[in-house]
Amino acid sequence: MQPLNISEFPWIEETVHEICIKNNAKIPKITIANICMPNAFVFGRTNKSATLTLTRGLLNTLSQDEVKGVIAHEIGHIKHNDMVVMTVLSVIPTIAYLIAMSTFFGNRSKNQAGGTILIGIGAFAVYFVTNLLIMYFSRLREFYADNFAGHQVRPSVLANALAK
């Protein structure tokens, strides 16, 4: 990934600044990934440390208006703190999984075997259910980002970008 070359794509920085200022969102760092697959994503610990990455494949495949729709979608993730929300939610099934695996495969005496196995089964059930909830929340966060983008650009532009 390389920082955005403003002389190559001045409209990308203008678009990001315009959408962020209009919606009172933190302006992310902007990078370009030299990958032919069309994709865009944001990452960071918080919305203040966010980085927006666009791939060369995305810039070569979509029209400028469609890329603006994708940028708006990604800024929607920043605006709604999705990076933090999904990271915090993902901790719960991870802990449950570690508990389940340690009870199934850890050292235990014969006196503790029954209770430990029940704890392991319970932890595995929590792991399974919370993973389903994570998938639900992930789709919900995508819906909110799409809704946000639909208010920034014409919804048909965003739909075309997603279809491509």
Provide a compact summary of the structure.
The chain is α+β, with helices and mostly antiparallel strands and 164 residues long. Helix content is 66%, strand content 10%.
Shape: elongated
Using DSSP, what is the number of strands? 4
Class from helix and strand fractions: alpha+beta
User: What ranges have pLDDT less than 50 throughout 5 or more consecutive residues?
Assistant: none
Helix run count: 6
Pattern of helices and strands: EHEEEHHHHH
Give the integer mean of the pLDDT values.
Answer: 90
Based on CA atoms alone, the radius of gyration comes out at 21 Å
What is the topology, as strand order, of the major beta sheet? Answer: 1-2-4-3
Approximately what portion of the residues adopt beta-strand conformation? 5-15%
Multimerization status = single chain
Q: What is the first-to-last residue Cα distance?
A: 23 Å
Helix percent reads 55-70%
Largest sheet: 4 strands, mixed
List the helices and strands and how they pair.
Elements: E1 2-3, H1 10-22, E2 29-33, E3 40-43, E4 51-55, H2 56-61, H3 64-79, H4 82-105, H5 113-152, H6 155-163
Parallel strand pairs: 2-4
Antiparallel strand pairs: 1-2, 3-4
Helix pairs in contact: 1-3, 3-5, 3-6, 4-5
Task: Describe the structure using short key phrases.
6 helices; single chain; alpha+beta; 164 residues
What does this structure look like?
The protein has helices spanning 10-22, 56-61, 64-79, 82-105, 113-152, 155-163; strands spanning 2-3, 29-33, 40-43, 51-55. It has a 4-stranded mixed beta sheet. The protein is α+β, with helices and mostly antiparallel strands and 164 residues long.
